[in-house]
Every structure is written in C-alpha cells, then in structure tokens.
Amino acid sequence: MNPDHAAIFESLAIGSLQLKNRIVMPPMVTLMGLETERARAYYEERARGGVGTIILEGTGIERLRSAEFVAAVGVLAERLHRHGAAVVIQLFQGDRSPAGDRFAPSAADGAREATTDEVLDSIQGFGAAAAAAREAGLDGAEIHGAHGFFLNQFFSPLSNRRSDEFGGSREGRMQFGLRAVRAVRAAAGDDWAVFYRHTAAQFEPGGYSLADTLAVAPRLVNAGVSVIDISPSTSPEGEGTGGHADLAGAVRGVVDVPVIAVGGMDDADAAAAALREGKSDLVAIGRGLLADPFWPRKVAQGRVDEIIACTKCDEKCFGHLSQGLPIECTENPRTGHEYEMPV
Question: Domain with 98 in it: what CATH number?
Fold first, then answer.
C-alpha cells in the first residue's frame, strides 16, 4: 500500500459498530429491487471488493411494513456481513401521500400542502421502519434529508412556507428532521447506528445557507444522529480545484460524530487527504464502485494503476434510471449482471 493512502484503511468505531475501513458505498438507486437475487449479487460484489460500509439505496419507509420485504433485506444483509461490510439502509419519505396524491411542505407544482397529521405520521413511520430494519439484522439506518427531496424541502424557505410547528423560522423548518431522528433512535435503541444525509447549502437566492446547516448539525447529533452524511460535500467553487470535501469539513468542525464526504473520493489521493486533514471521517465512492467494485482492494494492495476508472459519462447509471431501467456501467459489463456471471 502507498503509505499516503493508509488513512483510508483505518478502522472506526461507531458505538458498538466497528467499521473495518473508511470507505462507504453511498445509496444509489438501482431499480433492481432489494429483494432480488440480482440486487444481492450486485451488492455482494462491492462487499467482496472491500467496502467497509454499504448504505442500501433509498427505500420508502412504507416498504418496511412488509414482513416479506424485511425478511428479504435480512437475507441481503447476511450476505454482505460475510465479507465484513457494515450494512445500513437509507430510509426515504417520498412525495406521495398514503392516498396516492402528491404532497409537499407547501402547495406547489400540482402538490398540495401536507397536513400536520401527515407529517407526524411520517415521523412515526421512520421509527417503525428503523425498528424493522434492526430486527432484520442491519447495522443502521440513514434518514434521507438531502437533495431537495421531501424531508429536505422542509428545511428550505424556498419550499416551506408553512405556518404550523414544522414551518416558519429555521427552528420550525428543522423540526421534521429532528423528530424523525428522535423517532428512529427511540425505536431502534441507543446502540444502533443512525445516519443522516443532508445537503449542506442551496446555492440559489432564498435557499438555506451553510450557516443554517452549521446550526442544525449539532441539533441532529443531540437528537441521536451517529453519522452525518454530507452530499455533495464540495461546493461549486471547490470543484476541480482540489478543494474536495470543504462543505463536509465545515460540518465536521461543529459536531463530534463522524462525517462522510462524497464527490471526487474515487481519487485515492483526494480521499486520503480529506481524512488526514480532518475534513471527514469517512469517504463515499458512488459511480467509482460501479466501474470497479474492487477499488478498495486495489488501493490497499498498491494497485491504483489497475483501477477501472469511472469516466463520468452517466450513460448506463443515471441514463438507465431516466429510462426506468436497472443500472449498468459502460466501463464494467458485470455491473448489474453479477448474478449471471458468478465468480
């Protein structure tokens, strides 16, 4: 191993959970279905490749009400555990109400305003989903509060114009996230890992700022968060300048729990630097693990020049998703077909 990359392979304790290294596979929608053999083989390939933590793709909290689905996720977790990977599932509240119509923090673009009772029901749903995931044998859950989706919309003054307890001031706008964390922590127990994914700032007029995030981050920790996942973790100004993980670093400065950086971390030098410089405690590699599931093993063995690099073409990952197709990779024909090509 290149000594400069040693930080990537240090272990990390999160409560009673021991991570074997600092590499995280972030949640990426696959359209394979977590209960299928196709998905099991796909995720297991990344676990065999040496990833320390796998965050399963965003899953609607209502899915965890199905005993069959929970059992299937348990089978998947057991497969990944065989290779020493910690398994976390991302929990997601979509923009469809139980009745099937679209809702939002405030009425907009064909969506009605969610009622206070519906928000409270969603908070309880996060807790119930976490309890089911723990029962299935998973190591933790990640609340999806990022990327402009339903929960993240509550934090933004651009989309949240409510007058109840979940709107108005920053204090009100942070309540949905805080209460979802408390519900998950209460349902899953003190010794289970609770991740929270958050986008650090909206770089548009009227959106929330990094200062808003720095105010809510310690509150999330006090509510029960074990790990904060900042996505993206690099500001637009930092892209391409070597300033990777600057947003993650800002959050890392105000909390005492591990922070995940994502974006450019498939560059082993950038990943190691983010860790050494204290900008993050964990590094997430997304598309890079689609191109080469054995990225961790190759870096650990000093074989960086053998890594199959992601070219950022987005043709068969995001491109397939936009067509409603399971993800694949232009650089790796095995991606999405591991179940057809056993090792």
Answer: 3.20.20.70
How far from the centroid of its chain's Cα atoms is residue 203's Cα?
21
Which residues partner with 262 through β-bridges?
284
Please check whether residue 102 lies inside any domain of the structure. Answer: yes
What pLDDT score was predicted for residue 185? Answer: 98
Owning domain of residue 74: 8-289
Does some domain include residue 219?
Answer: yes
* Contacts (Cβ under 8 Å, ≥6 apart) of 95: 102, 103, 104, 111, 149, 150
pLDDT at 341 over 90: no
Contact status, residue 195 vs residue 229, Cβ threshold 8 Å? yes
DSSP-assigned letters across all residues of 45-63: HHHHTT-SEEEEEEEEGGG
Identify the bridge partners of residue 141 per DSSP, sorted by sequence position.
89, 194
Residue 342 lies in a domain: no
pTM over 0.85: yes
What pLDDT, on a 0 to 100 scale, did the predictor assign at position 22? 98
Is 325 contained in some domain? no
